[in-house]
Amino acid sequence: MLLENIASFFADNSFLATLIIALIPGLEGRIAIPFALSTQLLAENTLTPLCAFVSAFLGSIIPCVPVILLTKKFKNKYLTDISKNRFQKKINKISAGTSTFKKIFLLSTFVAVPLPMTGVWSGSIIAGFTSLKVWQSFIGICTGSAIACSIILIVCLFFENSTLQILYFSLCILAIFILIELVSNLIRKNASK
After folding, report:
1. Same domain for 115 and 98?
2. Which of the ends of the chain has fewer CB neighbours closer than 10 A, N or C?
3. Is residue 47 located within the same domain as residue 7?
4. Which residues contact 3 (CB under 8 A, 6 or more apart)?
5. How far, in Å, CA of 50 to CA of 42, rounded?
6. What 8-state DSSP symbol labels residue 162?
7. Which of 193, 118, 159 is nearest to 33 (CA)?
8. Alpha helix (H) ranges present in the chain?
9. How does pLDDT run across 108-136, given as a tens digit for each residue?
10. In Å, how far from its chain's centre is CA 189?
11. Structural domain boundaries enclosing 120
12. Does residue 132 share a domain with residue 95?
């Protein structure tokens, strides 16, 4: 299995393995923390809860600013004028009357939900399409990621002897979300024909 291969490859450095897993879109802290605390995978190289949290948090926020900047560049450069105007009108309509604090709070809340499609990568893409400044988006995303990592850590500590099962359960939820997305895309594609 992939996680067992990662565990054996990084046998001497569980912190780095956890950080790399947290970098991967969709996996992030929700998979990295149970991996870091799993004695079945890492044996004596299991991280302490604090180290697991820190490595998962750092790994998940590393791509934040580059993704925001790339999304902003894509939005400005590659969207046609018609799509850009239509898209900008929708964003303006949604954000009209919404304070910057509320936008940051909503972005943070979105990232804080430890489910597939709601992590740092998705939040960074969303932030790139908003009028928030990069540093404002970064603060919101970091706050949300810290909350999501805390939730996962608390669940893993509460079910301390079941971290491998939590890891497998999280992977199953991710697979189900991906499958639902693929099926819905196929249905939409066939319906448009």
Report:
1. yes
2. C
3. yes
4. 21, 35, 41, 167
5. 16
6. G
7. 159
8. 2-9, 14-23, 28-37, 39-42, 49-61, 64-77, 81-95, 100-112, 120-128, 134-158, 163-192
9. 999 999 887 889 999 999 898 888 899 99
10. 27
11. 64-145
12. yes
CB 52 within 8 A of CB 36: yes
Q: Are residues 137 and 70 in the same domain?
A: yes
Cα torsion for 12, 16, 19, 23, to the nearest 10°? -110
Query: CA-CA distances (angstroms) from residue 54 to 10, 49, 90?
Result: 17, 9, 37
DSSP characters over 51-72 = HHHHHHHHHHHTTHHHHHHHHH
Q: Residue count of the chain, please give it.
A: 193
Question: What pLDDT digit, counting tens, does each position of 157-167 carry?
Answer: 988 778 888 88
Do 112 and 126 fall within a single domain? yes
Identify whether residues 176 and 116 lie together within a single domain. no
Matching residue, tokens 């099926």: 183
Phi, psi for residue 122 in degrees, rounded to 5: -65, -45
| 75 and 35 fall within a common domain | no
